TrEMBL record:
This is Formate dehydrogenase subunit D. It comes from Klebsiella pneumoniae subsp. ozaenae. GO terms for molecular function: sulfurtransferase activity. It comes from the Bacteria. Transmembrane segments: none annotated.
Length: 177
């Protein structure tokens, strides 16, 4: 995993959620095209001092992310049940430290569970930032595919929102997705 130096994520209030990159296309290797790449960092949601979950997220608008997550997971019923919130840069990512009402915190502790992520990167669903980065065994090489099929998959992805954050795409050897 490409770890971000702490100094790059310290100023979390002045981020865009993406960065400018140069896109080199095979048909024109002389002129790179500007493009934008969604940036994500490991973000731990910490309720009343207890780490609940870590997810990959854009460092932009983390307070809104935390409120939305808390509402959708039933941790809170209303925004006013969050008494305070701080975003803090730590060595492996960012923590959103959330202060809940006592009633809501007791409910969270009663039904606490590990959240299983829907991707295979190994970040989503871990409880603490220290759990990130454990060694992963490489998979054996099993097949290859025509690069034109990769270009086709890229064209399909670019029809969506420019920063849709599509970290994975299925491309079969014969080009069907």
């Amino acid at each position: 995993m490409n770890k971000k130096p702490l100094e790059q994520i310290k100023n979390v209030t002045n981020v865009t959620g993406y960065r400018q990159v140069s896109l080199w296309k095979r048909e024109d290797l002389q002129h790179p095209q500007p493009d934008e790449l969604a940036e994500e960092v490991p973000v731990a949601l910490v309720y009343n001092g207890i780490s609940h979950v870590v997810m990959m997220a854009s460092p932009k608008d983390l307070e809104q992310f935390a409120v939305g997550f808390s509402l959708s997971e039933g941790i809170i019923e209303h925004r006013r049940e969050i008494f305070g919130m701080d975003v803090v840069a730590v060595c492996n990512g960012l923590e959103v430290q959330i202060e809940l009402s006592s009633r809501r915190f007791m409910g969270l502790k009663a039904r606490r569970r590990a959240l299983a992520g829907r991707t295979g990167c190994g970040v989503c669903g871990v409880e603490q930032l220290n759990d990130i980065g454990k060694p992963v065994q490489p998979l054996p090489f099993t097949q290859s595919f025509d690069l034109a099929n990769l270009d086709q998959a890229w064209r399909i992805l670019t029809t969506f929102n420019r920063l849709a954050g599509s970290p994975a795409v299925l491309t079969r050897p014969r080009g069907s997705g």
